[in-house]
Design a protein that fits this description.
heterodimer; A: mainly alpha; 7 helices; globular; B: mainly alpha; about 80% helix; about 0% strand
Chain lengths: ~240, ~230
């Protein structure tokens, strides 16, 4: 699947469709929102991609713990990194949108807080991994933390918005992703175009990084770095 | 769960309960003999609250509540970190041969929950003594602070296990734990309104239920995941 071409072409087509239809297509004219409503195709779809990447990462962490196959650890790590990149993108597009609708890039809205918490949790995952040098241990403890953090993150996303008042669409009676709420013209761009398009792009970037990581490891096995070779000779 | 890492005695329900109790008693006995964690943290709490008293006297109720939960967070990091970091490599190996990982983590969860209940009550007493009592219903806050102490101790016990396996100090535990603990702290500070306000908002019972559900989930996760941390 990784080496096949069709889904990469599909990803390109979907994103071109998202951009063309997203910027030129007609959207409902709403007060305050105006043209920023087009951010749905970018900001919301990027969050979808992030959630998919984090979920896949957890699945690989579980598979690592079940099989102890080192390859799955690389998968889990790279999917997390991909998720973090899309998290930062989603956060940035969200704050640019907030600047023009709420009046400020940052207004400590619960959704913004939730996004920062999620990013901190996954950055802590990277810190935890880097704190260990033993490869097996790093993989196993990393996988355990990844599963624990994911399981704690999900309730966070559901709890925090219910505890605090939010300006974000989807809370306090504002329209958001409810199927009745999206205009039919926008639905045909959002669901078939933007969401799978951005998700596939995330998967594509991640698979490239996975292949790079596996190749780097193979190269180090074949030709150890000079100081490592010296160590081997001395031993 | 059929994990290859579970060794030690067969996990029968009676022997397992016995193991948990024995391990728990050992932690308790160590604590009573050394009297290090309790008095160490007690001094830490007392001096911090005294500094707060010197700098602000009697704060208003929102500040009081915020400070209280922040104190609980730092007490928890300090008190719970010791539970795994004090076990040397050799001693862990010994436990590995005599008990299962699930018994071990359960005994630690139990001991730390008890320790945190005690510390929460002590710090609540000191708070009322030094910073005044802004609550109309102080009795319900006693129950809430026990619940809070248990919730915090569960999360940090598991994170202490991770940090100890990574051979790191308490700093790593704080990095891992602070983002994860935010939802529980928010829930707790909302639930605290029961004690702080005469007029109750709706939904507080639901929030308490959510918090208990979270606690149950953390215990379940610890039981599932700890066997993988156990083996070296």
């Amino acid at each position: 699947m990784i080496r096949q071409k069709w889904w990469k072409i599909l990803c390109g087509v979907l994103l071109v469709y998202t951009f063309i239809a997203g910027f030129l297509g007609s959207v409902p004219a709403k007060p305050i929102l105006n043209e920023t409503i087009r951010n749905l195709y970018f900001h919301v779809a990027m969050w979808f991609a992030m959630m998919v990447l984090f979920t896949v990462s957890v699945i690989y962490s579980v598979r690592y713990l079940r099989t102890n196959n080192h390859k799955y650890d690389i998968y889990a790590l790279e999917y997390t990194r991909g998720g973090i990149v899309f998290g930062i993108l989603g956060f940035t597009t969200g704050s640019i949108w907030a600047r023009w609708t709420w009046g400020a890039f940052w207004s400590s809205d619960p959704k913004q807080l939730g996004a920062v918490i999620a990013l901190l949790i996954y950055l802590a995952y990277l810190v935890l991994r880097n704190s260990m040098t033993d490869m097996d241990k790093r993989a196993r403890i990393g996988a355990v933390y990844n599963i624990f953090a994911f399981a704690m993150l999900m309730p966070t996303i559901w709890i925090i918005p219910r505890l605090m008042e939010s300006l974000h669409p989807g809370g306090m009676g504002n329209p958001a992703l409810d199927t009745h709420d999206i205009d039919a013209r926008m639905r045909v761009v959002f669901w078939p175009g933007a969401v799978p398009g951005w998700t596939l792009l995330g998967v594509w970037i991640t698979t490239l990084r996975i292949r790079l990581a596996i190749l780097t490891e193979k190269k180090e096995d074949l030709h150890p770095a000079p100081n490592q070779a010296r160590k081997l000779r001395n031993a | 769960m059929n994990s290859p890492y579970i060794c030690g005695p067969k996990p029968g329900s009676i022997s397992s309960a016995k193991h948990i109790l024995t391990l728990f008693r050992k932690d308790l006995l160590l604590e009573i003999r050394q009297q290090y964690t309790f008095y160490g943290v007690l001094l830490y709490v007392a001096s911090t609250i005294f500094v707060l008293y010197l700098s602000m006297g009697g704060p208003e109720s929102t500040v009081w509540k915020g400070l209280f939960w922040m104190m609980q967070l730092f007490i928890c990091v300090n008190a719970v970190a010791k539970s795994f970091l004090q076990e040397g490599k050799g001693r862990l190996l010994y436990f590995y041969t005599i008990a299962g990982p699930k018994d071990f983590i359960l005994s630690k969860l139990l001991f730390n929950a008890l320790l945190m209940i005690l510390m929460s009550l002590v710090s609540l007493g000191l708070f009322v003594l030094m910073l005044g009592n802004p609550m109309p219903n102080p009795l319900s806050f006693v129950a809430i602070s026990c619940l809070g102490g248990i919730s915090l101790s569960l999360v940090f016990t598991f994170l202490a296990a991770i940090a100890a396996r990574a051979q790191q100090n308490a700093a790593l535990m704080a990095i891992l734990g602070f983002p994860l603990i935010i939802p529980q702290l928010l829930l707790l500070s909302k639930i605290s309104n029961i004690a702080f306000e005469d007029v109750l908002q709706g939904g507080l019972a639901t929030m308490s239920a959510v918090l208990l559900g979270l606690d149950a989930m953390i215990i379940a996760l610890s039981l599932i995941l700890f066997p993988f941390l156990w083996k070296d």
